């Protein structure tokens, strides 16, 4: 009779273990592994490629610039030598969509006098061009200095 009770108790334990969730049992088996044993998941995580950064539309680029990028140059990433100087932006409520107007610049020089509506502002391929705003401000000062320098030499001789 004692052996029958012992057999019944062991079978009850086995049934109760089967009723436990599998993840609970896995946590016990993972804890019993030695730390020196190689982890098969570690090698697969090292071979994973890093996530690609999501490119930004014109408004997501402009939001970090002062006054939402008015007066700054922006271009699509695949354009070469062409950019827009932003003159006006109408934002929708979410701040990531809207309409924009600007003056076209080719090779750093204005190609048009009047601003026109920029097409493709919601496409995710826009970038800020930092050098164009600085060079257009500095370039006129350099030409004035170069013109006055030869006159001083002529007067001296």
From TrEMBL:
The source's domain of life comes to Eukaryota
Q: Which GO terms describe its molecular function?
A: structural constituent of ribosome
* GO cellular component term of the entry, any: mitochondrion
Stretches for region Disordered:
30-55
Please name the InterPro entries in this protein's record.
Ribosomal_mS34 (IPR032053)
The scientific name of the source species is Juglans regia
Q: Where is the composition biased (Low complexity)?
A: 30-47
Q: What is this protein called?
A: 28S ribosomal protein S34, mitochondrial
């Amino acid at each position: 009779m004692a052996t029958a009770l012992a057999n019944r108790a062991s079978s009850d334990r086995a049934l109760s273990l089967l009723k436990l969730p599998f993840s609970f049992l896995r946590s016990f088996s993972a804890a019993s592994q030695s730390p020196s044993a190689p982890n098969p998941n570690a090698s697969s995580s090292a071979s994973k490629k890093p996530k690609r950064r999501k490119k930004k539309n014109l408004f997501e680029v402009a939001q970090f610039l002062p006054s939402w990028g008015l007066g700054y140059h922006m271009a699509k990433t695949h354009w070469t030598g062409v950019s827009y100087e932003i003159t006006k932006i109408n934002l929708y409520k979410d701040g990531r969509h809207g309409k924009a107007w600007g003056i076209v610049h080719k090779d750093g020089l204005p190609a048009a006098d009047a601003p026109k509506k920029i097409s493709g502002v919601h496409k995710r391929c826009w970038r800020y061009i930092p050098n164009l705003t600085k060079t257009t401000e500095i370039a006129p000062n350099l030409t004035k200095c170069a013109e006055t320098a030869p006159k001083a030499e002529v007067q001296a001789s």
